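sanity check this fold:
=====
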Amino acid sequence: MEQSFAVIDREIGEHNFTSQEYAITRRVIHTTADFEFKDLIRFSPGAIASGIAAIRNHVPIITDVGMVKQGIAGLLAQTFGNQLISALEVAQEALPGKTRTETGLLECYRQFPQGIFVIGNAPTALLALCQELASASVLPALVIGAPVGFISVVESKMVLAQTPVNQIRISGRKGGSPVAAAILNALIVLAWELKDKSHGFSPELNK
């Protein structure tokens, strides 16, 4: 991983990321081998700080699908151990006019409105969440919006951009479960770096 990061550092070129933004962007590029994400990733003001604080305070983390959950679970178990929930696993059946993922995500939002929501697959679920946020009294600590594909993907990200929630999103059609997981994993590492590391443990080395 360190060697790969060194290659990225050499090849990424000029950028205006803060150190924390770059740590997240670099992990996404490492996961995808795609430097285009440098121009696609967006951070709202305060999003990283809010996400780190929520992780350290053991706020529940809700993913849209199991693949995102699996991509996060290993590093999270080594570090903060937050409750980790897949919305698709929550919904036994879909509500009328909604997918199972939408149904599960909305149920998770009702239970954990202050949670971290990580969406890498289901644009309809992201749209449903954004509709709830329009009139919400409690906003999530962070929404990671990185669904991939052609149908409703760009639209869902544009709607997310218009909400006041703390957010990290990937503009355009690109994204996916590995990208969403990479963003959250980078935040976990940043959160861990703020802890006392006198015991010498590094989540990077144990991933």
Observations:
- The chain is about 50% helix and 10% strand.
